[in-house]
Structure formats: C-alpha cells, structure tokens
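Contributing new records

If you add data, match the layout below exactly. Sequence lines come first and carry their own label; structure lines follow with theirs. Keep one chain per record. Anything else will be rejected by the validation script.
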Amino acid sequence: MANDMFITCLDMEGVLVPEIWIAFAEAVGIPELRRTTRDEPDYDRLMRYRIDILREHGLGLREIQATIDTIDPMPGAKEFLDELRGFSQVIILSDTFQQFASPLMKKLGMPTIFCNTLEVAPDGMITGYRMRVEKSKYTTVKALQSIGFETIASGDSYNDLGMIQASRAGFLFKSTEQIRTDHPEIPAFEEYGDLLAAIRGVILG
C-alpha cells in the first residue's frame, strides 16, 4: 500500500538509463564528450564545454536524438520503477533535457520527470539551455517539503548530493568511488533490489 506522504525523487542518467553523453561520445568517436556530472560539479561549465565541442564538429540535436533512440533503460530499471511506484509516488529529477528524455520515458512506463530544455537553432544546432530553476533538484525537493511531503532521494553524481542531503533519507546508487569516499555518511548501493529495500524500509518501516 502506498504512503502518500512520501515522494521518492530519482536521478535519471546513471540510475535508470545509461549516460546519454557517454553513449553519444562513443557513437561519434569524440571522447571529450564522455565528461559528465560525475566528473564536473559545475553544470554550466560542463554544458558550455559540450556545446562548444558540438559546434566544432557540426553536430546537433538530430544526431544526439538518433543515438538516444538506440538507448534502452538499464537492466532491471523498469521493473524497479514499477515496484517502487506500487508503494511510493515517484518523480524523476534530472538535469537532462526534455528533447532527450521523452523517448526514454516511454521505455520506462511514462514516469513523471522534471528536467530542463535545450535552446536549438532552426538548423538543429544546440545554442544553449534553460534550467527550470537554479539547483533544480535541491529546489524541487525543498518545494515538495514545503507543501507537506517527505522526500527520499537517490542519485549517482555531484549534482544529486543536494537533494540527497536535504531529504528525509538519501542514497547513492551506482556512484563513483570518489563520491562514495567523500560522503561515507550516505548509504551507497549497486543493485536495484538493495535500493528498493532501503526505500521500502523508510516508507513502510
């Protein structure tokens, strides 16, 4: 039975689906695009770096979406989400973009996702991006709490730490050794079953 006082907030890339930029880097043979929020805490710096590389190589949204069409959720991710949604409301909080996420959400059973938007020129070149709000994951968790919800959060990267630390309970999932070492106070899991059990324990006792 679901506990409607709790909302579980999950990161998307690295937790439910493979990292889009890493898959694209491999598809086009540009290793510099493998850099993600696991490596670079400053998201604006990371995105400007990516946009510069795309422009340099003449690559745009169409090419990235072609790679995304080949990406499937991580093994067990949809089953994990299906079971989790049986006893908790779930929102995916991601710093990805609506233009990237939509086809992946269909493969995950259309969970709710809050993410950002790319600015795209008529020729398909990515010129910039719009964040919903600054520190969107942390801000969203605090907003949910302000209207009476308890939050549980899980993610793998630097940009997930704010929502994890601000929540009633927070967990690292498939994170890096460096982040786990820097934050030994945050329980860390590698398997969906273990994460599911931890969330269930918080919600159902």
